[in-house]
Amino acid sequence: MTTILILFVFMNLDTILKTGHCTDTRDQVLSITPTTQKQVDILKNVSSHYETALWQPVSPEYIKEETQVHLFVPGNSSGIIKNLLRTHGITHEYAIYDWINRTTHDNPDTVKLILVGSSYEKRPLYALKLSLNNRPNKKAMWIDCGIHAREWVAPAFCLWFVHHSLSFYKVNKDITHILDNLDVYVLPVLNPDGYKYTWTKNRMWRKNRSQNNANNCIGVDLNRNFDANWCTEGASHDPCSEIYCGSFPESEPESQAVADFLRSNKDLVQLYLSIHSYSQMLLFPYSCTLEEAENHSDLLEMAQEAAQAIRRYYRNTYSYGPGGKTIYLAPGGSDDWAYNLGIKYSFTFELQDRGRYGFLLPTSHISRACNEALIAVKIIALKVIEKTQAATSSPQTV
């Protein structure tokens, strides 16, 4: 069967601008590289005779083999187009780089593209810096998504959070206050190699795709690879294990890239958020030990308020607490490492659901998952701003 990989990005355009909510009707950007003349002919027909917009090349006549095609498909046409492509044996996978590039291009004054590093298979690790004003001495928050490949709803939230922030700055008072006081760094996919693998080979893949020279087992659990009680109880030295910690802390280029960036910016970043799925939990340090964090009461207060707001507005229950006591011991996690670095407000969100669908969360659930995570991010970010500003402005005693 002839196959084209269609890299598409979900963008909630008109609906987000009008309502601020995720929906199931999405415009899509298809990035397609035809490899045969038959595929070229199909794409020419689709771009000429259906409700689409050809972004690249400028005209269907320039579509040719081994040349990338970018096709915008409005949400009301996506089903017809995808069925047509499927009929001709054309498969697709979810991708994010085109969306990242276009968001940066369309918002040159407020969005900066930062190359944090690269993956094992040399895919770029791009973070978007949202800076909505030039206030001096601004602090920052960091959000990363997709450290575990199969947790698809996590990257979806990161992209949606960026779009929501850009759309509702100066419209929604909470997001405006957050962006007035904090720059935001968003890394949509921390594990791009594993993420691609879940679209092409194994939907349930968790780790990255690094090769172990000692045996045939592939991959390291990147959330066991940070230097926080590395490879103690809750991680494994076995390269074939799903929770393999790697050969040493930060042995993987993905975890090292994030750690290097945060080390370089530790005086700026006040809030660290890592987005996962599933189980509906708001977790904070520690996960690598049963000891309590120094500011346990602050972290507990924030997580509790966020969980209560989710319960109030969306009638959904999120557990909360330190990771090691709330779920299980998980040494080498990014949130514990960030906390030990000095980022004293550090959280891991586990989004929907509680196990009915698990990693296979249906599209119909994405809207609520996005909005639940957003309200938690807002509450915690606002609390961090309040507490850090109060600490800065409090009078010094002699």
Automatic annotation (TrEMBL):
One of its GO terms (biological process) is proteolysis. The keyword tRNA processing does not apply. GO terms for cellular component: extracellular space. The active site is at E350 (proton donor/acceptor). Keywords: Carboxypeptidase, Disulfide bond, Hydrolase, Metal-binding, Metalloprotease, Protease, Signal, Zinc. Its cofactor is Zn(2+). One of its GO terms (molecular function) is zinc ion binding. InterPro entries: CARBOXYPEPT_ZN_1, CARBOXYPEPT_ZN_2, CPB2, M14A-like_propep, Peptidase_M14. CDD domains: M14_CPB2. Belongs to the peptidase M14 family. This is (Atlantic silverside) hypothetical protein. It comes from Menidia menidia.
